[in-house]
């Protein structure tokens, strides 16, 4: 009697039930995060600008991008490329301050100052 009462008050409709089917796997895995790759490339570009044009702010941005790339990298990523980008950005900061030890004045300081 209790079971019969339960089946009558059950609002679910058994004819509408469908078994779960996993979606088809696409070519691009949604779990792939491209942030380490993009920040690695940005770090290399900014470190080259910092080295070639002696821009201290570019060297600092390169170091920032390299740290983000290193922090977001996975175990199976290319460690040599990330480490070389990190070392290149550190050398850009060191070389820019060896050439001109004065404190950094960013180009946008004249706009706000």
Automatic annotation (TrEMBL):
Pfam families (UniProt xref): ASTER
InterPro entries: ASTER
Annotated localization: Membrane
Transmembrane segments: 41-70, 82-99
Residues forming coiled coils: none
Any one GO molecular function term: protein folding chaperone
One annotated Gene Ontology cellular component of this protein: endoplasmic reticulum membrane
GO biological process: protein insertion into ER membrane
UniProt biased composition (Basic and acidic residues): 7-20
Region Disordered, residue ranges: 1-31
PANTHER family: CGI-140, PAT COMPLEX SUBUNIT ASTERIX
Family: Belongs to the Asterix family.
Protein name: Protein Asterix
Source species: Thrips palmi (Melon thrips)
Gene that encodes the chain: LOC117639397
């Amino acid at each position: 009697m209790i079971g019969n009462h339960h089946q009558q008050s059950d609002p679910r409709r058994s004819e509408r039930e469908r078994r779960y089917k996993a979606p088809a796997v696409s070519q691009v895995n949604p779990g792939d995060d491209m942030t380490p790759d993009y920040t690695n490339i940005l770090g290399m570009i900014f470190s080259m600008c910092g080295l070639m044009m002696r821009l201290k702010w570019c060297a600092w941005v390169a170091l920032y991008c390299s740290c983000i790339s290193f922090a977001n990298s996975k175990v199976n990523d290319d460690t040599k490329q990330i480490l070389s980008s990190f070392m290149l950005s550190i050398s850009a900061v060191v070389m820019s301050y060896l050439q001109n030890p004065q404190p950094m004045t960013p180009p946008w300081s004249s706009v706000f100052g």
